[in-house]
Amino acid sequence: MPIETIENTWITLADGRRLAARLWLPETGPTPAILEYLPYRKRDGTAPRDETTHTVFAKAGYACIRVDIAGTGDSEGQFDDEYSEQELHDGEQVIAWIAAQDWCDGNVGMIGISWGGFNGLQLAFRQPPALKAIVSVASTVDRYADDIHFMGGCLLSDNMNWGSQMFAYLTRPADPELRADWRQDWLARLQNVPFSSADWLRHQTRDPYWKHGSVCEDWTAIQTPVLAITGWADAYVNAPPALAANLTAPTKAIIGPWEHRYPHISKLDPADFHSEVVGWFDRWLKGQQNGAEDLPAYRTYMQEHFNPTAQNGPRKGRWIAETAWPSPHVSERVWHLVPGGFSRDPVVGTVVVTSPNHVGGEGGYFCAGMRIDNELAGDQSGDDALSVCFDSSPLQAPLELLGRAKLKFQFSVDQPVAQLVARLCDVSPEGVSQRISYRPLNLCHSHSHETPQALQPGELYEAEITLNECAHHLREGHVLRLALSTSYWPIVWPAPQSATVTLHLLDCALHLPVREVAHEIQASEPGPAQAYPVLAAEQLRLPSAQSERTVTESGCVVLETFDDYGKTRDPYHDLIVGSDVRMLYRIHPDDPKIAYFETAWSFSFEREEWQVAITTECRMSCDTENFYLYRKLRAAEGANEIEVLTREWSETVPRGLL
Questions:
Q1: Which of 127, 409, 473, 476 gets the most CB atoms within 10 Å of its CB?
Q2: What kind and span of H or E run contains 650?
Q3: What is the pLDDT of residue 1?
Q4: Other C-beta atoms within 10 Å of 554: how many?
Q5: Is residue 179 domain-shared with residue 281, that is, in the same domain?
């Protein structure tokens, strides 16, 4: 189908601000529309990915619109925060504007991964009349429990990492070809860029800030059909099954082996994402009776042991399907903890858990898919050796897990703030340990994420860790391992003091979601990725990546990574963009106060006589009382990089019960 591409058009909001949009329009008259609404710059940031998606969807008969959020890319206004009231209110106006265009038939869908997956759900929650269906990839239903800031009441180091990335992203200028006022606007962006890491860190409990945008607050509010997708190598694995289980609107869940990318461009077994999306929108935007509502509630890739490494590579497993979710084929099996293993019946006794702070070195990058490579969880044997492990006997028959395992336990502790991290692993007869699932818990949050309390040393408490979703087939002869630790660096920022957690075994049990099916139904698995168009950008510098872990003379464990995303010239408008990022994580096995993170981003933009260069630096450290956050920005323009602005900020945030 012939399509017309409009590089830029303006959507004028009620208050006069203009948002920048790129359009792909079928030449067939009014059609349904698909919106993707992001802060990642349509002009260059997502342009390569957009070429692989919206071009295909437009040829399938959809008007496609890629809009920059206010204050980002080429859009006017000031950015304030992720998923803010401004962002969502603007989004409602964008949807209404799309529905009113003569190239749209009034029916609008939304698609997005991560940020776009989040705000698609959040806008559906607000029920704008023209929004009729969404495809949400790698998203969350609970912004406190399952995002990049906190997990189980523990601070994720990616709160600082992601805030540092957004800091760099938000300093980038609009394109002078589209904005005559680009320099004035750029200076305003540089002066007003929010200190997001510190802002998020101040909200340490599940308060109204996090409840805003958490669609689990009212499952009935979403009345539009939802196709929810993610991958097992991604950080966002809990939302699709939760949506399938709780929404009243038509909902389908798919979890493949993929990382934090759209499935067709995954480096881990790419799949036919396009057909799934088009089929979903054909049903709910075009009204075609194609059977989309009759697909299984939950389709997933049941993984098996595959000798894990940090490098990208194919997974091992098979596709399965459950017609309903929760499934009648999944039942709870309880294994009671005993020293070193499990039993059918509870036992009296205790097990002490205390770990060096560098446990977690094989945990991989929190959100795999953001780096170029070297980001996946590897062989867990090294981390297991530093943890307290409970091993099953070698399995006499295969064991299949589908859902969220739970660890229920009674404990005492010697510090007022402490963590416990649970990992489930599949251990091969050769001793290779593959992580199946994990989850940390700030033990101060044992009874509430809204009103945590300091722990009283020696007092008995009860707690539960609901591990992240999994789908895993353990083969006969393999061992199921539960590994417990009091730290998990660098994914989790450590507690202020090394702690000893004592488990009181009489009330400690692992509750497993065991799947048993006599006859499998047809899985309706996504096929291999179909051919898709690729942006014919001129590659001026090739991407590259490296990671190195070292130990200093003082015993600190240091992880350094570098990702050069290359330098390219866009074929449509000749904008040349280059970027790279360096990260460093440092921890001492015996002193959590040594925990330290730093990162530096670099961006360059050029076209003919116009050049801009931006560098940002961010650091985070701590002591027992506070977190210390620092950031620096330098912006320059011209071939000689004449300084436009250099500015530094520092924030001290009390660590409370973190």
A1: 409
A2: strand 642-654
A3: 81
A4: 8
A5: no
pLDDT of residue 502: 98
Alpha carbons 183 and 601: distance in angstroms, whole number? 21
Q: What is the mean pLDDT of the chain?
A: 97
CA nearest 323: which of 301, 302, 300, 297? 297
Is the domain of 290 the same as that of 384?
no
Task: Output the six-digit token pair for 422.
Answer: 């649970």
CATH, residue 500:
2.60.120.260
Domain range for residue 543? Answer: 155-203+536-569+574-658
176-185 — which CB contacts under 8 Å span 24+ positions?
A: 176/607, 176/610, 177/573, 177/607, 178/8, 178/20, 178/43, 178/74, 179/74, 185/76
The span from the CA of 99 to the CA of 189, in Å, is: 31
Answer whether the bond into residue 194 is a cis peptide, omega within 30°: no
Residues 246 and 194 placed together within one structural domain of the fold: no
In a domain, 169, yes or no: yes
Query: Token digits for 603?
Result: 């961006």
Which residue type occupies 182?
W
Q: What angle do CA 530, 281, 134 make, to 5 degrees?
A: 105
Helix (H) or strand (E) holding 588: strand 576-588
pTM of whole model > 0.85? yes
pLDDT given at position 420: 98
Q: 489: buried, middle or exposed (CB in 10 Å: 19+, 13-18, 0-12)? A: buried
Residue 429 near residue 186, CB atoms below 8 Å: no
Cα separation, 230 vs 115, in Å, equals: 13
Give the count of alpha carbons within 13 A of 403, CB side only: 21
DSSP string, 322-368: ESSSS-TTEEEEEEEEETTEEESS----EEEE---TTTTTTS--TTT
Asked if 548 and 508 sit in the same domain, the reply is no
CA distances in angstroms from 457 to 413, 415, 460, listed in the order given: 5, 6, 9
Q: What is the CATH number of the domain that holds 275?
A: 3.40.50.1820
At 210 the pLDDT is 98
Residues of the chain with pLDDT under 70: none
Say what the pLDDT of residue 518 is: 84
